[in-house]
Amino acid sequence: MRSSSPNGFAVVWITLSVLPVMTALQARPAAGNRDFTGRIIWISDRDGTPDIYTMDANGSQVERLTATPEAEEYPKASPDRSRVAFISNRSGKRELWVMPMTAGAPALQLTSSPQYLEVMEPDWSPDGGTIAYNVISINLRDPKAIQVVGEVWRMNADGSSAVRFIADPGLHFNPVFSPDGKQLLAVANDFTTYFDHPLAPFLLDAGGGRKRLTDGFDAHAAWCGSDHIVYVHFPADTTQSAGIWRLGLAGRAPERLTPAEWEGSPRLPNADPSGRWLLFTADPEGKPVVAGEPAYRHYNVFKLDLETRALEQLTKDEHVDEGAWWY
Q: What does pTM read for this prediction?
């Protein structure tokens, strides 16, 4: 069944087959557990087009979940680890899909947007009942565009009851649920085009309010425990490199986590439930991009111990390794 949203965004309602479900508490270690041994889900094109892979926290036991000629992006495992939400263009352009966390399992499309819109960056609520996601216009990064769309939406995990999360003006991206599920962290600006103003992390609440957290050009924000966030900071001084920073929400000073000498911009940092292990992708060697390649062509997956600051490279290849996330 299809319904139309207030902005013309249509949603396909699909009821998923019943899957075995564990509670989030059973599925994932509680915050504060220092012996987290979860897995990592990410995208790689090592076997052709970008597909979804999983691996252990040390880079071993790699498993390929999808093998399609179309590109997959932004995979996120459900809190009970039974399903994965992801973005794929297998229906013609980027839409939100869900599939069981099983290699080769069939996937179900949850969104079907108008021609000028597409979907990006899903995230599961801690109880697994809701998915937040980005609705953006296809012309988002066109510098000649007069007005573009960047909205945060949420729906039930079966694809029903899709609503826009916040109606504030401006562009909103990269929604991530807080550990208690009561707020969303997102990056946003206050203008109508992508290039009008630098992005910054905001806290969004269900009542429509929002609170800005930094004053700089900061993107790719995620939670690090319940009282810190991590994000990529892009310095106004172009002689300095972009890096991952951590900020305490109780007024603590921000601190840089990645080496200052890195030239390759890191992307999508996120912490495990204990808040000790940071995961992200980067190209610290700053390899030149070949014409026609995406800018993150040579990115690899890295893990940083936030207690010892020991850094480990988990993938080592010349392909896209992107969108890595703990589960």
A: 0.86
